[in-house]
Design a protein that fits this description.
The complex is a heterodimer. By secondary structure, chain A is mostly beta strands. Chain A has strands at residues 4-7, 10-13, 19-25, 38-43, 50-54, 58-59, 67-72, 75-80, 89-95, 102-103, 107-111. By secondary structure, chain B is mostly beta strands. In chain B, the strands form 2 sheets. In chain B, strands 2, 4, 5, 6, 9, 10 and 11 form a 7-stranded mixed sheet that branches. Chain B is globular, with a radius of gyration of 13 Å. Classes of the chains: A mainly beta, B mainly beta.
Chain lengths: 112, 118
């Protein structure tokens, strides 16, 4: 199975600051069709996960441009600029290239 | 507005069965693949099962293969998860999620709790 390693496990960020989360895969996430199915989610306390970024770098509907995704192959990054209180929660990466689909263990974003 | 509403959870003894449902609204259910994902208390997310729009393709996580069955009724806009031989490690909040083009889960339900305990 593909293992997604997220770092750091937790982040303490000041309001207005910038956060960066890494997601490293145990194997390339480039599908045979050329697409890379690596997505990012945020789970706010007590809520269901919500989609932020799909296929590495595409923001989902309604997601502000403070959120950006990048990367290729096995290394991916989610960046959050100008952190706001509603950004707090646990961030997960998900790979949908290889079966079984796997999630990273999560990165908890907290306010300093 | 896309809505996914799970039901059918509860407390069940080890070895028993339970069937979860997820009723979809706000979109053409028969056009989308669907998934079940679970989250044990205080833990991360674990994908459980996938079913394609027309039920032609079905995949399971190894941890549930042979015990869980995913199915759907497109006429009723409903996704199911039949769970048998339940174990304590199946205790979790179970979410259904829609899968759109790009192999991404774009909408999730609020989840339904399954507790396996004697």
């Amino acid at each position: 199975d593909v293992v997604l390693t997220q770092t750091p496990v937790s982040l303490l960020i000041s309001l207005g600051g910038q956060a960066s989360i890494s997601c490293r895969s145990s194997q390339s996430l480039v599908h045979s069709n050329g697409n890379t199915y690596l997505h990012w989610y945020l789970q706010k306390p007590g809520q269901s996960p919500q989609l932020l970024i799909y296929q590495v770098s595409n923001r989902f509907s309604g997601i502000p441009d403070r959120f950006s995704g990048s990367g290729s192959g096995t290394d991916f990054t989610l960046k959050i600029s100008r952190v706001e209180p509603e950004d707090l929660g646990v961030y997960y990466c998900l790979q949908r290239t290889h079966n079984p689909y796997t999630f990273g263990a999560g990165t908890k974003l907290e306010l300093k | 507005e896309v809505q996914l509403v799970e039901s059918g959870g509860g407390l069940v003894q080890p070895g028993r069965s339970l069937k979860l449902s997820c009723v979809a609204s706000g979109f053409t259910f028969s056009n989308y693949g669907m998934n079940w994902i679970r989250q044990a208390p205080g833990k991360g997310l674990e994908w459980v099962a996938y079913i394609s729009s027309g039920s032609s393709y079905i995949y399971y996580a190894e941890t549930v293969k042979g015990r869980f069955t995913i199915s759907r009724d497109n006429a009723k806009n409903t996704l199911y998860l039949q769970m048998t031989s339940l174990r304590s490690e199946d205790t979790a909040l179970y979410y259904c999620a829609r899968e759109r083009t790009g192999r991404v889960f774009d909408y999730w339900g609020q989840g339904v709790m399954v507790t396996v305990s004697s």
